Structure formats: structure tokens, C-alpha cells
Amino acid sequence: MSPGEVRAFLERHGLRASRTLGQNFLVDLSLAERLAMLAGVEGGDTVIEIGTGLGALTTALAGRARRVLTLEVDAGLVRALRADDRLPDNVTLIHADALRFDFAGALEPIEGPVRLVTNLPYSISGPALRRVLDLRDALTDWSVMLQREVAQRLLAQPGSKSYGSLSVLHQLVATVEAKMDLSPRCFHPVPKVRSLFLRVVPLDHPSLRTEELPHLERVVRAAFGNRRKTLANALASLGPAVPREVIEDALDRAGIDRRARAESVAAEAFLSLARALPAAGTGAGFETEREREGACGAKTC
User: Fold this and answer.
1) Per-residue model confidence (pLDDT) at position 246
2) What region, left, alpha or beta, does residue 216 occupy, with left being phi > 0 and alpha being psi -120 to 50 degrees?
3) How far is the C-alpha of 288 from the C-alpha of 59, rounded, in Å?
4) Residue pLDDT, tens place only, 228-284
5) Rounded CA gap, 217 and 196, in Å?
6) Residues with Cβ < 8 Å from 115, sequence gap 6 or more?
7) Alpha helix (H) ranges present in 13-55?
8) Could you tell me the strand order of the sheet in which 195-202 lies?
9) Which domains does the chain show, CATH number per domain?
């Protein structure tokens, strides 16, 4: 799909790429087919896609999978794709916001393997990745195209500047592998950043239990939200229900130096710390913080 063809399609339907929605459309069809292969999509799979865009990746996925459910938030794009009948017959196009869509309800009746494969819009990458973590028990795996800076946070190890809450949460429940580095020229409009395509596979026996994730998330976000402070000071943002002496006792029980900073603490140590801290009183303000970090451009991700 050439830039001219993309512009012609958008102009014919009175559309343009939206910066607000983080739209950078994948336009290289041969690359889309390679990404579908790297994602491990097979004939019996149902694939969930977030962000249909112009349908390049959607079409490639449909060529390998039994069925594709693709979500697009842009009503204009949905109308244009349907009007031009651009998508294969085994694709169901859903006009929906991925941050509000009932994934659990959609996944419940599906039989057979389910994978999520997506070129995530930059504007929702952080909260979308977090939503996918809640679906991990229902997914065979998930493959995501991300701004390279965000992708590096999923891959980061303790001690690096990229290491943060997304690193910790993913390392405790999945393995993350970089599959391909993509040039900005693969997209329209051409973004100012490079992208990485990652494949994430849930661990068979994760140490983190499903019900522990919300509490752990609050703890690591408190820790990385004040990354220049020692953990004993940073965790004070958990609120008055978790006093200083409780925090210090929890750090001691988890085997973490009270003077340590978040970026030096391994994921398993954070899990031990969360288990040593009371869950009560740690929720205030954290949902608002997560929304502020939306595109994961914030340093606390």
C-alpha cells in the first residue's frame, strides 16, 4: 500500500490520521504478513486486534487465523472500511474503545486458542498493556507493536533507566521477547520514533497469583512514582493507613535495604514486599495516576 494509495483512501472518505488517537497506520503489506508469522498465528486461532487502522495487519492475520475480532475506536475509519469492504470474510470489525471494551465477555464463548496481536496506538499503550495483563489467563500469548521506548520498559532489567512498574508486572507473569525492530517508514504518517514488535508469553506457573496483581501494582507505582527517593520514603505515598514503621518492617521482611531505590529492586523482591505490606488503604489516587501515565510517556511506567 503506497503513501499515495493511503492518502487517496483517506481523502475519499474525508478522513485524516488523528494525533489525538495516536494513529500511525501500518502500510507495508509484506511486513504485516511477516508480523503475523512472528506472532505465531495458526489456522485454529482466534485473534484479537486492537486498532484496525487501514486493515493491513488485520488482513494478514485473517490469512493465517480461523477468525479475527478487530477493534477500532475511530468511527470514520469503521465506516470507510465497511463501505469499501476492505476486510476478509473471517474478520469481525467492532467499533469500540479498547480501554472500555468488555474483553472478558467477548472471550468467554470462544473455543480454541486465542491470541492478541496489535499495532498499539501510542496514545493508549500503557493502559492497554495493563488491561491485557488482566486477560493473560485467557490468552495463548500476545504480540504488540510499541514505540521502542515503551517496549524497552517491558524488557528492562533492574538497574537500568527503563526499568519501571511495567517491567516488574510483566516479568512476574510472562516472558517478553523482542521479535522485530521497525523503521518509521513502515507507517503513515511517518512517526518520529522507531517501533519494536514484542511477543509476550504467559508463564505456566507464575509466582504472582491473579488476585495479588492490583495490590502489587499499587506498591510498584508508589515506588517508581518517587524514584529518586529511597523506598522507605517513596512508599509513604501509600497513605496514612500504611505508617512508616509498617513500611520499614515490610522492607526488612522482604530482604530489601531501606535505603534502596526502586530501580535496583528485582521483580520477585517487589512481590515479597507487596505481600509484606497491608492491602488496606493503598488504593487512594492510583487510578488517577495510571490515567495520567496514559501513553506510558511518564517516567513512572
Assistant:
1) 96
2) alpha
3) 36
4) 999 999 999 999 989 999 999 999 999 999 999 999 999 999 999 999 999 854 333
5) 24
6) 39, 40, 41, 45, 46, 47, 48, 65, 139, 140, 141, 142, 143
7) 29-38
8) 91-95, 67-72, 46-50, 114-119, 141-147, 195-202, 174-182
9) 3-202 (3.40.50.150), 210-292 (1.10.8.100)
Low-confidence ranges of the chain (pLDDT < 50): 281-301
**25 contacts 53 by C-beta, under 8 angstroms:** yes
Q: How far apart are CA 58 and CA 35, in angstroms?
A: 11
d(CA 150, CA 182): 14
d(CA 206, CA 172): 6
What percent of the chain is modeled with pLDDT above 70? 92
Predicted local confidence at residue 8, as pLDDT: 85
Record the cell numbers describing residue 46, joined without a space.
Answer: 482466534
Cell reading at 154? 517491558
Q: Report yes or no: 276 and 270 within 8 Å, Cβ to Cβ.
A: no
Residue 27 CA to residue 22 CA, distance in Å, equals 15
Helices (H), 46-88: 56-62, 75-83
Supply the pLDDT for residue 75: 96
Distance CA 52, CA 73 (A): 9
Cα separation, 270 vs 216, in Å, equals 8
Nearest to 58 by CA among 78, 175, 75: 78
- What are 201's strand-pairing partners? 175
CB 247, CB 205: distance < 8 Å: no
How many CA atoms does the CB half-sphere of 1 hold within 13 Å?
Answer: 25
Q: Phi and psi dihedrals of 263, rounded to 5?
A: -70, -10
What are the E-state strand segments in the chain? 25-26, 46-50, 67-72, 91-95, 114-119, 141-147, 174-182, 187-188, 195-202
